[in-house]
Amino acid sequence: MDLGSLLIILIVGGVAGWLAGLIVKGSGFGLVGDIVIGIVGGLLAGWLLPMIGVSFGGLIGSIIMAVIGAVILLLVIRVIRRAT
């Protein structure tokens, strides 16, 4: 992985985290936390969604997949936080 690929992953994850933070209100992680969750959610979605037969191409498709992963991750974290 070169520097350009890493930069694209960080930008896509950041945008996805920001969008997921807007979609899932009250996550309580702030902008930086939502960006980190977007990056992790994007990696999760990039691994999980193709396994179930869902994939999007291009930069916009990557952002969509990352947003889906980040929203799922934010919802799971919210459920875990409420359970404790």
Question: What can be said about this structure in brief?
Answer:
The protein is mainly α and 84 residues long. It has one domain (3-83). Helices cover 79% and strands 0% of the residues.
Shape: globular
User: Which range best describes the helical content: under 10%, 10-25%, 25-40%, 40-55%, 55-70% or over 70%?
Assistant: over 70%
Following the backbone from N to C, one meets helices and strands in this order, namely HHH
The helix-and-strand class reads mainly alpha
Oligomeric grouping of the chains: single chain
Write the layout of secondary structure elements.
Layout lengths: L2 H21 L6 H19 L9 H26 L1
Helix pairs in contact: 1-2, 1-3, 2-3
Polypeptide structure, described:
The protein is mainly alpha-helical and 84 residues long. α1 (3-23) crosses α2 (30-48). The protein has one domain. The protein has helices at residues 3-23, 30-48, 58-83. Helices cover 79% and strands 0% of the residues. It is built from three helices and no strands.
Entry keywords:
84 residues, mainly alpha, 3 helices
